[in-house]
Amino acid sequence: xxxxxxxxxxxxxxxxxxxxxxxRPSTPVLSGLLIExxxxxxxxxxxxxxxxxxxxxxxxxxxxGTVLVSGKLLADICRSLPDKPIEMVIxxxxxxxxxxxxxxSLQTMPVEDYPTLPQMPTAAGTxxxxxxxxxxxxxxxxxxxxDMLPVLTGVRLEIDGSTISLLATDRFRLSHRELxxxxxxxxxxxxxxVPAKVLGETAKSLTSxxxxxxxxxxxxxxxxxxxFEGAAAGGVRRTTTRLLDGEFPxxxxxxxxxxxxxxxxxxxxxxxxxxxxxxxxxxxxAVQLAFGDGVVTLDAGSGDEAQASESLEVTLxxxxxxxxxxxxxxxxxxxxxxEPVVELSFTQAAKPVVIKGTVPDDGTDPGFRYLLMPRRLLx
Length: 379
Description:
By secondary structure, this protein is of the alpha+beta class. The protein has helices spanning 7-18, 71-80, 129-139, 196-205, 267-277, 327-335, and strands at 2-5, 32-38, 41-47, 51-57, 60-63, 65-70, 86-91, 94-99, 102-107, 123-128, 154-160, 163-169, 173-180, 182-183, 189-195, 211-217, 225-232, 235-242, 261-266, 287-292, 295-300, 308-313, 315-317, 321-325, 341-346, 353-357, 368-372.
């Protein structure tokens, strides 16, 4: 194998393919990055039996071949190289990398021991890459991080015609994001439970091109696979991951059909106020919000400990009420909203609040809702 390639294009592709390499691989070869050189260019691949990454890029290939080298090490080397073309060639059981006057010799691993990468499922449609990445970032705000509850570490992706819905919950909060896309089959209905961490990293990494292709295969138990493909500098990038196995809770019904109290408030002011007041809140205690007479008053701390209080103007519709929330969860939800004014909607103080952005000019639904369970207030 022998090839010559642009340093920036190669380094970017190596970093992208190596990002999903396991920290503690079950076998040494899974720490490797597979490099395949042919007349069509280069293919860089990584796989840990759950998630695969595949990047194609253009290169001047003098001799075809395949080599497996340490992915993390190669990524570190590429980041440090001078701004000159890279040449790689197999030299016995090692591979030689030359860039300007810099030269590295890397030990190879047995290619025959590397697992076969899964095939990309059938394409279900395409979506604007920036829109999808932003929607995913909003949705994963509420995804669980407890591996003891693996179903809740996923995002439920629902396809209904030209609409994609993303749902996530960790039992204490719930996010729901809707966006439009271009399906292959207009009236198709599909659902998949995608690992939130993989979904977030993948969507963010595929914004170089204008759109992302989503491919889905919902096989039997433990056999479902979802794939994402997008254009990148010099080629194409593709990721597949195994779907989570399990029944995602039926959470849509948690969003109430009507509200008795709504409050609109400047988002930036509320975020800053929560950040200040929570400084005196003891761990696992709520920040209290009391709504009434065009004002919301935030309080934290109690007894002989430090206390804080701050008031903000609100536009209130309905009866006043007093409730409390985990301040970090509240800040997560507010931070995921794009609009400068947020609306907090309540049925009663002891029930969850629904938070969303408001668009006063045309009333357009921003597409993102965040439901947050209240916390018990200290007496």
